[in-house]
Amino acid sequence: MRQEPGIPEKYKALSNLILQVILVMAAYLRLSDLGRTSLWYDEAVSWQQSKGSFSELLASVAADNYPPLHNAVLWLTMPLIGDGEIELRLPSALLGVLAVYLIYLAGSTLAGRPAGLLAAAMLAVSPFHIWYSTEARMYALQAACGLAFLLSVQKVLARPSLAWLASLVLSGTLFLYSHYYALFGFAAVGGTCVVLAGIDLAKGNRLTRSPAFTACAAMGTSTLAFLPWLAVLANRAKSVSDEGFWIAYPDAKFLENMAASISGSLTLFWILVALSVAAFAGTAIFSGPGSKSGAVSRRLILVCLAYTVGPLLFGYLYSVLVQPILFDRYLIAAWPGLLLLAAVAAQRLLPALAPIALVAMSLYLTYPELRFTLYEKMRPDWRSIVASYLDRRTGEDRLVLYKGFAAPVLKYYLRDPDAGNLAANPADLARLAKSRRWLLLVHTDRDEMFEALKAFQVSEVNLVSRRFGWGASELSLFKRDSAN
C-alpha cells in the first residue's frame, strides 16, 4: 500500500486521533457559548431577509450588497430549529468546524497529513475565525465554501476525476454565491489556472489533457451559474459607488490594524507571511524540480498563493482606485490560505519540530486575543437594552428609534412588526416628541447625540439605561416624564 506523503503508514491512526482532537476543540470553541452576546444589526438583517418566502428573500438580498446563499441556509434552517440567537448562529458554527476539517484535507493534499494537521490546529484556535463562526452572517460559510473550492482545484490539478470535477463546479458555485469577495479569490485562482493551461499548451500538450484546462472548464461552468447574480451585484456596485460606503481608506495604519485583527497578533502575521514566502520559494527545492510530482506540487502551491493573495490585492486596488471596500472580515476565506502556506513551509523546513513550535507560538502570541474573543468581546447589547424598555414601559407606550438602520434588530427583540417610530433626522425627532416619551439612540457621535436629545426635549438626566454599543451614545434609552 502506498504511504501518504510526509507520514509513515503506521502513524495514520495517531494522525486520525490528533485530527479528532482538533475537531472536538474547534467545535467546543465555536459551539459552547453561542448566545453570549446579543445579535447585532447585520445578524438581524439576515434574520429579517430570510423569514419570508424565498422570492421575498431574493428580492431583499438583491437590494443589499451580497449574494443570497447564507440567507438561503437560514431560510431552510429557521423552520426546523427556530430563530433564537443560538439557532441563527448554529449553521455558522457548524460551518466553522467544517472549515477546520477542509483545511486539513487541503493541507494534506499540499504536503501530507502533518501539514494538514498543523493548518487545522491553527485555524481551530484562530480568534478571528472563531468570532465569525459565532455570527449569524455569511463569513463562516464563505470560508468553508472557499476551502472546498480550493481543495477541489487542488485535486483536479493533481489527478482529475469526474467526482472532483463535479465537486469543483459545485463548490465554485457555492463559493461565488457566499460573498462578493469570493469573486476575487475565484478570479485569482481561475487566472492562475489559465496561465498553467497556457504553459501546458506551449509545451506541446493537448489542452484536453491539461488538468489546468480541465479546472478552467469546471470554473467556467461555475461562472455561468453565477451570471444571474453577477448582474445584480454589478448594479449594486454602481449604487454603492454613487451613494458612498462606510469603510475607511486603506492607509498603512488601516492595513496594519487589519493584519493584527485577522491574525490575532501582528508578530504572528509576519511569521506566517515569512513562512508562506519560504513555501513558495522553496517548493522546487523540496519537491524535486525535475519530477512530475515536483511540478504538480509547485502548481498546487501557486494556486494556494493566488487564492490567498488575490482577495487582498484586488480588494486593495479597488479601494484605492474606485472606493474603499477592504475590510478584515471580508478576507476570512483568504486567511486559511495563509495558514496553509505557512504549514507547508514549517513541515518542509523542520518536519519533526517546526509544526509543534508553530502551533505553540500561535497559541502564545494569540492567547490574549483568544481569551478576549471567548469571554469579553462584545456586540451591541440589544438584548439588555430592549429588556430595560419592556420592563419599564406601561400601557401603549412606544419608543422612537434614532436611526432607522437598527430597526431590524429592534424588531427581532421586540418581536413586533411595528417596533417603534423611526427618526432619520432631528426634525423627525422634534415631530415625534409631541406624542412619544421613549427615545432609543443608536450609534451616534457626541455632537449628534446632543442634537438628538435637544430635538426630542430630553437630557442626560432622563437616561434610563445605557448598554454597550458603538459611538458616543452606545445604546442609550431615554424617557421623558410626560408627552406634550
Describe the global form.
elongated
* Helix percentage range: 55-70%
Strand order of the largest sheet: 2-1-3-5-4
Q: Write down the Rg.
A: 25 Å
Mean pLDDT comes to 91
- Give the domain tally: 2
What portion of residues belong to β-strands? under 5%
* Topology pattern, helix = H, strand = E: HHHHHHHHHHHHHHHHHHEHEHEHEE
Topology, number of strands: 5
Strand count, sense and barrel status of the largest sheet are:
5 strands, mixed
Secondary structure class reads mainly alpha
Distance from N terminus to C terminus (CA atoms, Å) equals: 86 Å
Could you name the ranges where pLDDT drops below 50 across 5 or more consecutive residues? 285-291
Number of helices: 21
Structure characterization notes:
With 484 residues, this protein is mainly alpha-helical. The chain has 2 domains: 9-375, no CATH class; 382-479. The chain is built from 21 helices and 5 strands. It has helices spanning 12-31, 41-50, 54-62, 69-81, 85-111, 113-124, 127-132, 139-158, 162-176, 182-202, 211-243, 252-263, 266-281, 283-287, 292-321, 335-349, 354-375, 382-392, 407-414, 426-432, 446-456; strands at residues 399-402, 421-422, 438-442, 463-467, 475-479. Strands 2-1-3-5-4 form a 5-stranded mixed beta sheet. Helix 6 (113-124) crosses helix 16 and helix 6 (113-124) runs parallel beside helix 17.
Keywords:
484 residues, 2 domains, 4% strand, 21 helices, 5-stranded mixed sheet, mainly alpha
Topology at a glance:
Layout: H1 12-31, H2 41-50, H3 54-62, H4 69-81, H5 85-111, H6 113-124, H7 127-132, H8 139-158, H9 162-176, H10 182-202, H11 211-243, H12 252-263, H13 266-281, H14 283-287, H15 292-321, H16 335-349, H17 354-375, H18 382-392, E1 399-402, H19 407-414, E2 421-422, H20 426-432, E3 438-442, H21 446-456, E4 463-467, E5 475-479
